[in-house]
Design goal:
The protein has a single domain, classed as Orthogonal Bundle (Arc Repressor Mutant, subunit A). The protein has a 3-stranded antiparallel β-sheet with strand order 1-3-2. Helix 1 packs across helix 2 and helix 1 packs across helix 4. It has about 120 residues and is of the alpha+beta class. Helices cover about 50% and strands about 15% of the residues.
Length: about 120
Amino acid sequence: MKPKREASQDRIELLQGTLDMLILQTLVWGPQHGYAITHSIRGRSGEILQVETGSLYPALHRLEKQGWVTSQWKQTESKQRAKYYRLTPAGKKQLLSEQARWEQIVNAIAGVLNPES
């Protein structure tokens, strides 16, 4: 019988740069505040990818500094003030570049794991 693992052991560490791509992809669906971004990533990954606050906000600030996202303070549906992030045209271009790079990585790993394919 397989030993029971804690949920934290099932978390997957993201490759460096992957978080940026996931955030940019999430913002393709429209402007969102930080909590909504983490919720989208977690939900769309089947609860596997969980982005911690300590990783999310430095990444958002980095993306904003690069000009790939912009931010604006707005009121949430629950009447709280939150910073909403929006993808810029430069961010859309960067996302396409990141997606192409990701495909190369996936294909390279698949080639190592399944050399006869």
